[in-house]
Design a protein that fits this description.
Length: about 90
């Protein structure tokens, strides 16, 4: 992965010190977290075919087939649907 020297060298002195590198890493982590959240939200919206704010087994089978085998495991409240919170918690299991 290429590093954008100018983005890391915030004081523009032509050198990168530890604090600049650490600050850049924190900025990149925040950016990546934001991108993951955006992607999750877009994926959830695309899978929620009837727009009820939750995913049924059929919606998961059709739009998120990699999760189909884990549906029951992720359905914490056993209501037959996956909400955003259950999906997010399930992604860390």
């Amino acid at each position: 992965m290429a590093i954008d020297f100018d983005a890391v060298d915030t004081n523009k002195d032509g050198q990168i010190v530890r604090t600049e590198a650490m600050a850049h890493g924190e900025r990149m982590q925040a950016q990546m977290r934001s991108e993951r959240e955006r992607h999750f939200s877009e994926s959830f919206t695309a899978a929620d075919l009837n727009k009820d704010g939750k995913l049924s087994r059929v919606e998961v089978d059709e739009k998120m087939p990699r999760l189909a085998k884990r549906f029951a495991w992720m359905d914490d409240n056993r209501d037959g649907f996956l909400g955003k919170a259950e999906l997010q918690a399930g992604s860390h299991r």
